[in-house]
Amino acid sequence: MDYKELAELLFPHIVTTREDMEKRFPERDLPNRADLPNRANVTRIGPSPTGFVHLGNLYNAIIAERLAHQSGGVFYLRIEDTDNKREVPGAVSTVIQSMAYFGVNFDEGAVADGDHGAYGPYRQRQRKDIYQTFAKWLVQQGKAYPCFLSEEEVSAIRDEQNEKKEDIGIYGKYAEKNRNLTMDEIKEKIGCGEKWVLRFKGSLNSDYIAVEDAIRGKLEMPRNFHDFILLKSDGIPTYHFAHVVDDHLMRSTHVIRGEEWIPSLPIHIELFNEFGWEHPIYCHTATLMKLEGNSKRKLSKRKDPELALSFYQEEGISQDAVWEFLLMILNSNFEEWRIANPFSDYREFSFTLEKMSNSGALVDLDKLRDVSKNVISRMDANEVYEKWFQWCCKYNEEYAALLTKYKDRTIAALKVGRGGEKPRRDIETWKQACQFMSFYYDEKFEIVDTMPEECDENLVRDFFKRYLERIDYNDDSTAWFQKVKELTEEFGFAVKPKDYKKDPSAYKGSIVHVTNMLRVALTGRSNAPDIWDVTHVLGEEMAKERISKWC
Ligand code: GLU
């Protein structure tokens, strides 16, 4: 067989060579920073535009982003759209927007209206000629051949292999017929318009390969012996071929991807070897799991809304909280670092592959909520306002209008209990903030909790009447509290809760009941921030009005 002739027959339109591609995508000129221990890393994420962006995409993006940016390298976005059956219109912008929402910043790659960077195109379907240049080279070397097996034939082979409990695929005797076609036979088939795919000639050599995975250590597996597909019948590559060509030409130093790709590793290594290229450092990440009862299971798209990144956006979970939460799952020492550095930006944490675990990563939403409360409690009032407002603009227009109308009051309210060593941890998500903060706006104010049992209707009325007479809005919080204590006593309640506990029959209740009464009147709830602070955020008029309603 004249392989050069075969290559021309299959790819007459390809006039570029391997060497042309090497020139077009040269080695990257990366800064050699003396302050950094390792070479600059070039990393990427390669999401498929299926319309569903999942937490795993962000999980891998964070690793890749950290590795690149901590080392002064490059992080890029490549859209892996070779499987057009899975593609959904608008899915590329969904990926781009989700990553932007979560503050994942790319240095290059696909952008909404095209590409940014010198190693593009960054959408695989637009790289067809690049892949075919390398496919043509493989044919010239006698390492790839056109295969005319129809779908029916392939499925008959699969049935036979299933029955005989053999490996599923095209190899050995199953590949013989198409491997051994003559040039005339190939010409005839192509002349008749028969469809073909391009297959790699796997070797039937049954030894092992060993690859050092940066997370898992040495992976040993049988060498590939399959005649796997390089190009599908429309000339578009499979993931395997595209991955090898792209990560070589785009000069990725690390490939961070899910562990579901481990079984395909022998194929990738075979291709890198065939081209004589160094393969990138592989980092196969653990599958995201969830605890159900006492056992862990994989997060499922069908059952678990939290697998979708949109869930975190819709719930209004702050992007910083999601980052911190994922960093916590990714690096076992993050939590310790956070305790030691409560006010540092999480980007100051130095992420390492060595600290990653390779067993299932547990996504625990209660833990996330807890992280989120901490993250928000550390923000200043203006930052909380801005982030909450941004979220409302997209997901809660009514609140966006309220926050605009009452901007000053809202910021004043957010200042209550903020700052200092032990800030309040009331706000968990932007969605929940709309509920929690609702009492600051008359439009949303409602009485949620009931008055304490210890305070009947008459007592409430008399107490509030006296309260309004006695309290001066200009009292500072100490003077105010002194008056509350006096009223407590006058109404037969214990100023010290422990006195009431000791002898309940001697009192109507304690100061706790009195302050609860004030909280319910002012905020509608018994669990609310400091009463004096709330009163001063609401302003004299509104506070008086809320209390007068009970008189
Ligand atoms: N397109 C692949 C996926 O969506 C990406 C794998 C990779 O990063 O190489 O799973």
Short description:
The chain has 551 residues and is an alpha/beta fold.
C-alpha Rg (nearest Å)? 33 Å
Q: What's the quaternary structure here?
A: single chain
Shape: elongated
Average of pLDDT = 94
Poorly predicted sequence stretches spanning 5 or more consecutive residues: none
Can you give a write-up of this model?
36% of the residues are buried. The N and C termini lie far apart (101 Å). The chain is built from 24 helices and 16 strands. It has five domains: 31-122, Rossmann fold (3-Layer(aba) Sandwich); 128-285, Rossmann fold; 291-377, Glutamyl-trna Synthetase, Domain 2 (Glutamyl-tRNA Synthetase, domain 2), CATH 1.10.1160.10; 381-438, no CATH class; 457-548, Arc Repressor Mutant, subunit A. The protein has 551 residues and is of the alpha/beta class. The longest helix has 16 residues, at 55-70. α15 (381-395) packs antiparallel against α16 (397-405), α15 packs across α17 and α17 packs antiparallel against α23 (531-538). The model has no long low-confidence stretch (mean pLDDT 94). The strands form six sheets. A four-stranded mixed sheet has the order 1-2-3-4, covered by helices on one side. A three-stranded antiparallel sheet has the order 5-6-9, sandwiched between helices. The structure holds glutamic acid.
In terms of topology, how is this protein built?
Elements lengths: L2 H8 L7 H7 L17 E4 L9 H16 L3 E4 L13 H11 L6 E4 L2 E3 L11 H13 L3 E4 L3 H13 L8 H8 L3 H9 L5 E4 L7 E6 L3 E6 L6 E3 L7 H11 L4 E5 L6 H11 L5 E5 L2 E5 L2 E4 L10 H6 L4 H12 L3 H7 L20 E2 L2 H14 L2 H15 L1 H9 L1 H9 L14 H7 L20 H14 L6 H14 L2 E2 L2 H6 L6 E2 H13 L7 H8 L1 H9 L3
Helix pairs in contact: 1-5, 9-10, 12-14, 15-16, 15-17, 17-23
The structure holds glutamic acid (GLU).
